[in-house]
Amino acid sequence: MPNTNAHLDDIRKGYTETANNGNSSHRHFGFHDTTENETVSAHDVSEPQFDPIPDQVPNWSDNQFTHIQRLVLPPSIKRFDHEHTCSNEARFLHQRQASARVIGEHIKEKFRDHRLYKPKEIIQDIHNEFGISYNYHKGYRAKHIALDEVQGTPVESYQILPSYLYMLERTNPGTITDLHTDSANRFMKNGIITGVEKVFPNSFHGACVVHLERNMLGRYGKNNVLKDIFKKAIKVYQANQFTRCMEQLENINFEVAIYITDVEFERCAGAYSLRKRYNLTSSNIAEDMNNAIKACRELSITGVIDYIRGVLQRWFYDRQTSAGKLKSTLTTKADVNICVKGEKARYLTVYPITYY
Predict the structure, then answer these.
(1) pLDDT digits over 138-170, tens only?
(2) With helix as H, strand as E and coil as C, how does 219-262 read?
(3) How far lies 198's CA from each of 193, 205, 273, 274, 276, in Å?
(4) In the β-sheet with 43-44, what is the strand arrangement from edge to edge?
(5) CA distance 163 to 178
(6) Contact between 147 and 115 (Cβ < 8 Å)
(7) Is 32 exposed, middle or buried (0-12, 13-18, 19+ CB in 10 A)?
(8) Which helix (H) or strand (E) element contains residue 31?
(9) Which of 100, 173, 230, 342 could form a disulfide with 142 if both were Cys (CB 3.0 to 4.6 A apart)?
(10) pTM for the whole thing?
(11) Kind and range of the H or E element at 104?
């Protein structure tokens, strides 16, 4: 506690009693300048009467000491709150906070190798390194800030796409690129069927029956009977069996039959397929491809193209190297199976069916 006696003694030294007739309820005090300057003139202090007692500490809760309390008591801390309540605008530049931009600047180098760096991983890494906790939204914004710093914005990436394709052809002889834009410099989308026929003219392009089934049920309502007949029509290999299935579909819902006809039988029905589809009726291979290149989903357009090119180039190189090591015209797995079956066949007993 502060020495209140010492403060009171200082105040006592600053005044002297000048007059008192014993009847007045007021006292007259004259204050002397302690710096040895001229004496301040006496004046009437219209306050409650009090008598200073040298050996006692005054009752500071008394109303007559209110003005003295304001002069001598120092401020005290009542409560300490360690949580920051100041806004970002009230903080100084040299006291940088863990904003999304600061975090993005710190993690941007981790995106240069096309790393699939998720916001949850960013949050965990920053917490482990600095002990800072923040929400998922800030981690998401930090990720995209870092991506923009490393690879530029999507607008910038599309602007350099023609130059990128030109250099791709120059540095990789035999590469063919084809970019079509309209008068407003927007992409001209002709559809996947047109694209496949132009780029892969000798390849068969079938429709995914899983997507056809989902579209059919989504448009014309969920019907298990309709679903079963559709699957049967797709899998049969004889034209007359396919025709009977289509007639059943027409009886249930004529619009469904029209929908399948518009898709073209050659693209979906095994009975009319131009190639041997066997059991390859879905686009699972496309899903596998999507999974293989998922690390580049959030890259810029040039980054996506470059990543896919790198994946395919690596696949072709690995398979070409493996093919050069083969000792037969069969693949390694097929060659092993033939050898195993051939070894078993050596000990089989042969029973002829006819003379020949």
Answers:
(1) 988 998 888 888 877 788 888 888 898 999 899
(2) HHCCCHHHHHHHHHHHHCCCHHHHHHHHHHHHHHCHHHHHHHHH
(3) 9, 12, 20, 18, 22
(4) 15-19, 28-31, 43-44
(5) 12
(6) no
(7) middle
(8) strand 28-31
(9) 100
(10) 0.49
(11) helix 100-107
